[in-house]
Specification:
Length: about 300
């Protein structure tokens, strides 16, 4: 594989995360061949300086590798194994990096099919949100063939800073789902502390500052606490995506007979939020569930 080819990257899925990651690949000097099913996503890619393509096959043509950043398992399966997909139209370097959060079981099945065709699939989900995607500081958890990981690592380094190969196919998704399980339960803990502190009449901004200096400190309290205290439900990692991730956690846990009561409880609360029309809000909107339970809906 020539150096010139290694600079051409196919990118599929230019949503909230994908467009920022594309910008960083371009900044790092790569040529990006971008494809999405939504016209405004393609428009954003054009404005960013990517070469916009009209199909998955066109995005993969002459590319060293291809990155997918799609909503859920069915979309990745369609792009990889569906008609006109990457199995039939692999990139030259025969590596696909799926950076979406999807089912580890599905990753392993896809990886086995692709391997038989001489193509490596790395599962490389991320943590850090749109801000991490924008600043190229994502945490990236990679599962799959170690040699393919070494070849792909320089590309991943344009999008993240904490990059680890955590095991064989599916291991990256498994670590990501453990991350999401902790995110959900931790956010619930912050909601409960805020609900209790508020009902007691303490200064919540000061309470947050104090707690950040002690053993209850957390990323959720630090980054999402101000929005929760200020009643801002809007921006951030969407509740719909969180529910998808918690569903994947539940499926994995069931397949391994691991009881996760915390996951079941927080999933129910996110379902309540979605039923109140908050699926498009940031995941900190979980605090609204507590507002309702405390009869503070108008707060
Ligand atoms: P998004 O919905 O904003 O973007 C997904 C993009 O994929 C959309 O532009 C959509 O049009 C496109 N798409 C869907 N089906 C397609 C297909 N068949 N072919 C081509 N394009 C297709 O989602 P996002 O927030 O960018 O998240 C992407 C993935 O990253 C998800 O799995 C999510 O769970 C994960 N993730 C998101 C965040 C976050 O904060 N948003 C953080 C970490 C991980």
């Amino acid at each position: 594989m020539s150096v010139a080819n290694s600079q051409v990257i196919g990118f599929i899925g230019l949503g909230t995360m994908g467009i920022e990651m594309t910008r960083n690949l371009l900044k790092a000097g790569h040529t990006v061949q971008a494809f999405d099913v939504v016209p405004h996503a393609l428009q954003a890619a054009t404005e960013a300086g990517a070469r916009v393509c009209s199909s998955v096959a066109e995005a993969a043509k002459d590319a060293f590798l291809i990155v997918t950043m799609l909503p859920d398992t069915p979309q990745v399966q369609e792009v990889v194994l569906g008609e006109g997909g990457l199995y039939a139209n692999p990139p030259q370097g025969r590596i696909i990096i799926d950076m979406s959060t999807i089912s580890p079981q599905a990753v392993r099945a896809m990886s086995a099919t692709l391997k038989a065709g001489g193509i490596d699939l790395l599962d490389a989900p991320v943590s850090g949100g749109p801000q991490g995607a924008k600043s190229a500081t994502l945490t990236i958890m990679v599962g799959g063939d170690a040699a393919a990981y070494e070849r792909a690592r320089p590309i991943l380094a344009a999008m993240g800073t904490t990059i680890n190969h955590v095991g064989s196919s599916g291991a990256g998704q498994t670590v990501k789902l453990c991350n999401q399980l902790m995110v959900g339960i931790n956010l619930q803990a912050v909601c409960e502390a805020i609900a209790l502190g508020r009902a007691s009449g303490v200064d919540l901004a000061q309470m947050r500052e104090v707690l950040l200096g002690g053993s209850a400190a957390s990323w959720m309290l630090d980054r999402l606490g101000p929005a929760m205290i200020g009643g801002d439900a809007s921006a951030g990692f969407r509740i719909d995506l969180m529910l998808k991730d918690l569903r994947l956690v539940g499926e994995l846990a069931q397949s391994l007979s691991v009881p996760l009561p915390g996951n079941a409880l927080v999933t129910t609360q996110y379902m309540e939020a979605k039923a109140h029309g908050e699926g498009g809000n940031g995941n900190q909107a979980l605090f609204k569930v507590y507002d309702r339970m405390c009869n503070r809906s108008a707060a």
